[in-house]
Give the backbone structure.
Amino acid sequence: MSWLIYIIIIIQKIFMIWSLNGILIIKIIIKIIKYQNGECRNTFFFERKNMIKNVALIGCGAIGSYFVESLNNRITIIANGKRKERLKKDGLWINDKHYTLNVQTEKSAGKQDLILIGTKADGLKEAISYLPYLLKEDTIVLSLLNGVTSEEKIIQFIPKKHVLHSFMKIGSYRKDNRIYFDINKISDLYYGSLYGNRQQLHSLSQFLKTTQIHFHEVDNILEQMWLKYACNIANNLPQAVLQVNSTLYTKSEHGYKLASLLWSEVYKVAQLKGIQIPEQVQIFPDSEWGYKYSTLQDIEQKRETEVDLFLKELINMACELHIQIPFSEMTYHYIKALEEKNKGYFE
Ligand SMILES: NC(=O)C1=CN([C@@H]2O[C@H](COP(=O)(O)OP(=O)(O)OC[C@H]3O[C@@H](n4cnc5c(N)ncnc54)[C@H](OP(=O)(O)O)[C@@H]3O)[C@@H](O)[C@H]2O)C=CC1
Ligand SMILES: CC(C)(CO)C(=O)C(=O)O
């Protein structure tokens, strides 16, 4: 009889090991399925490191407000001096809803997991000077500015591993502390990694999935940024010179031609830098509805424009490549002269 007891015990043990293994195998299968669906990319390999909790925004204007609206209770606004007092006291009105803000200086905010830079080009230098106070080992920095050089400027001051390349597609309008955009139209964040920081990319996508933000993690972020850059140059600038809305490009063959000429010069520079963008000019969708893009908004509200970010930088690149881009040069000087006119130089 004793051999029978032995056999029963052995069978019992086999079943126990089998069922334990079974549970383990089922757990691994569930993990793999979740990983495939992108639900646990952070945790499968990286053991719950790099979870984004603290998010800071430097520059809560037209595009920054999109993140205030989406992450309201989870976002710290970084500002100093009078700007800080104003933002604390008045908050922001976004699409006619009032938001009170958690405003901190760069020194009081503490270390951040994610930092969004939403200043214009003229505020970038100061924004960069805040970064050392906010950075920890695995902080992610996104620069939302238009143009193709803000990331290069940032990595002159902080290690590359922090920086993902990014830009926004959104039509947002600001007058003082009132901001309007339509989240049902295009309001999208694009980002990608040029410096091989895949872990940051996963953390960011993981975090964004928990929010209402429309986002796209893309492989060809540099091409996408240049495409947006070319669109901004071709669409924002002729309308700013002529001070008319975007029907310029749909109603007038001359307007369309102006956009095409500028586009052809960005295309030439991009080609020589090995960046692929389409040869044919792209007019922003819905331009027949008569939009005023940011450069014209700046001119009308007598603010500095970002023409240096758009054209001065293109002219410098062309110079380095030993090519001429006369339409861009001329447009650059037109807009600079309009800025001077706004400052009352000619009165
Ligand atoms: N508007 C749009 O629809 C789009 C804009 N973009 C790009 O996004 C970038 C931002 O543009 P936009 O949002 O329109 O610009 P805004 O002028 O509306 O916003 C910039 C904000 O940055 C703040 N700021 C400047 N310096 C600092 C600083 N040192 N610390 C804290 N805050 C600071 C400004 O504050 P203050 O007002 O007090 O000076 C302002 O609120 C630009 O590069 C633009 O080309 C891209 C896509 C669409
Ligand atoms: C045209 C627009 C709104 C597209 O996102 C833009 O980038 C700008 O106004 O500068």
